[in-house]
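User: structure tokens for this one?
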Amino acid sequence: MRGGTPSTEDFGQRLRFLRARAGLSQEALSHAAGVSVRALADMERGRTRGPQRRTVEALAEALGLDGDEASGLEASAAQGRPRPRPVDSLAEGPSVPVPLALPRDIQDFTARDTVLARLLDLAQDAGARRPVVTVVAGQPGLGKTAFAVHAAHRLAPHFPDGQLALDLHGMDTEPTTPRDALARLLRAMGVADAAIPAGTEDRASLWRSLAAGRRLLLLLDNATDETQVGPLLPGTGPSLTIVTSRQALAGLTSVHRCDLALLRREEAVELLTRIVGPERVRAEAQAARDLADLCGYLPLAVRIAGQRLLSRPHERLGKLVARLAAEGRRLDGLQAGSLQVRAAFALSYRQLSADSRTFLRRAALAAGADFSPETGALLAGLSYDKAVACAEELTDAGLLQSDPTAERYRFHDLLRLYASEQVEAEDGPEARAAALDRTTEWMLCRANAAALHFDVDHDRTTPSGDPDPDTASTGREEARAWLEAERAQWLAALRRAHDTGRHRQVLDTAKAMHWFSDRTQHWEQWVEVFRRSSDSARALGSRREEAAHLNYLAWAHNLCVHDPRAALVSAEAALVAARDSEDGLQEGWALGYGAGALNRLGRTEEAHTRLREAARCLASQGSPQARLAELTMLNSLGTLLRRIGRPAEALDIHRRSEQICRAGVPGRTDELISLYHAVARQQIGNDLAALERWPEAEAPLRQALASFETAQMPAWTEQARLDLGLVLRTMGHPEARRTLIAARDALAALRSPRQEEAATALAALDRTTTGR
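Assistant:
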């Protein structure tokens, strides 16, 4: 004996004695050494007689052993380790195991703590009849291999019977076959070449029998598909297998999945800091954040940027930011030696079928953050069903990300740049233009058909002109959903039609959108839509249409982007065009929109004069369109009168507007008139509030709010909610605070100028409630 240590060579007894001498429980030693309690118990009971050297070193350090005692513990562990001939009965001669050691760990590995913790839980759950398999899949550049290797090193102490790593070369032109992979695994277990069976199934059977009783950690990196991986998985025993692949490997059953997401911005900056050092990052903190943004928080891209900077210690981070800011040079800038983002994407791209390659690169031409299979089909020139199949293949390959609820897909920013490069390289300008023209034509036809569901002048019994009637919207809800989902795409189509001289198509689309725009006045894009349509009317020489579309533009400047100066310019131009074409209806609208702009600019008297002139102009006309326009002018005139301190006159004007609504307008639906009636009721409620007739004001405001909610018009709804909240606050109503909070939050989301009014009212209410 030395220092009381037993002379026995049995590792378990020696370990148990040393732990007791140190006064540590199994749990305490487990925590200190990073070894699971289950693994520690197996060692002390003799179930695991020869743990790996790394595990022994961790235990010795945790126990505080000196050099001699640590050497003694390692010697007793070595006695219990299996000799390199686990299948001597099958070998014809001495066999030497061919090691499949884990690759070198990355010292600057960053983040992924949650996923690592989950893997640790899985490792501790591995039981004699439950080999655990986890799949790490995802898009190129997420750091799947780096994560798997780091995890394997962290988990190694829990698998004292060995850790094996095997690259399956899934991205090579000839991936490793299951038969060859099994041969390498068997050699690593000490099986002589002569004893390795010839057939794949026999090799798999022998491999499973050897792995069954061992706590092994198996890393299968870069797998190509399920058929390659399946034969390599242990069937029983306390093993853990980590599989990495760019494919989803959805066909593997009874496996756990590790979803590696993009890094968060702060994690990307932390990775950059670990590579180049904290001093350089602190010196250019904003540049470091910008660099993370330009890398799209993709671990490979951040690492490449960091390695590039590390090799150039005197180069500023801002210099690399400036280079990467130019999209055309970004992929060129993201390379450092053999590390290249472009090369990582190219490996996956080459594996795709011809149709999927076409779909991927042409999808980069889609507008907006995401796109539908419908758009992809148009751009690629494929059928819808084929496009869906391609999108699914690309999602499984990690090259597209699918929306969790809708059938829509998106690129990572860097992958979109790569796909755009392939369009230029493989398709050329003619094919690209043809794809965009085909998509433009289809999108504008469908956008017209969808928007006409909201047009009060459109006869719904006539054909809609949709390019695919079988999939066309059948009602307003479907039409609204399509117009919202494809907003970026049909707007891009409108731009292309305008820029390529298809002015009639632009005018028809904008006109169809007019009534729908009223329901979505929080969309700033209406300024561009109606600016382009008024340009197209001018190009066609139609002064009447130019007047109408300039009025639409004035409306958009007034209510969508809150720019009264630009609104006044458009309204003045519309007034001239309307008078040139002798269009009284558009003249009335132009006077009204100009008045709205003047009022917002503080030119109240001029606004008042114009509104009365607009109302007189429209009252003299007998068309249903003129009646609706007159209602708008009366409501605006009454609102102006109230704001200049004449609420009694305002109430009379709004009562008159309400009478017109109750009488109805020939040729207009009750649904439409109810919206105008709701506007009148909202203003009547505000007039009554200005006259301090608070209880009377509540009912019309609630009626207006309910009508706007039913019509799904958020910009109108939330202003009515705010007006109601103001009245309820004055009355001391218990709903006041809840109503004001809802209005404040919604108006902020809509970027409404009235959000500050809501916040101020809420703060005043809170002060009143708290007595401060």
